[in-house]
Design a protein that fits this description.
The protein has 2 helices and no strands. It is mainly alpha-helical and 79 residues long.
């Protein structure tokens, strides 16, 4: 489940998203060690939101590179 209070993440780069995910994971580990379950749930939702946008941007970047390289990703006929 994504966090409902996080707005658009379109302006973040892949590196920024990765950095933010890393930072949130550190905060999650601190929250878990203190036993704050509510904060852990909020952080997990935030991590999922950033991770989904990260994966979307990585996928878009990969597809763009394939298109730029003019690689046909269709089926190959070996007959």
């Amino acid at each position: 489940m994504e966090h409902p209070l996080i707005g658009s993440l379109d302006e973040y780069s892949i590196e920024d998203l990765n950095s933010k995910i890393s930072d949130l994971n550190k905060k999650l580990s601190i929250a878990a060690s203190t036993g704050n379950a509510h904060l852990c749930n909020q952080l997990r939702m935030a991590i999922e939101t950033f991770r989904n946008k990260y994966l979307e941007k990585v996928r878009e970047d990969y597809e763009k590179k394939l298109t730029d390289a003019k690689i046909d990703t269709g089926k190959i006929d070996i007959q």
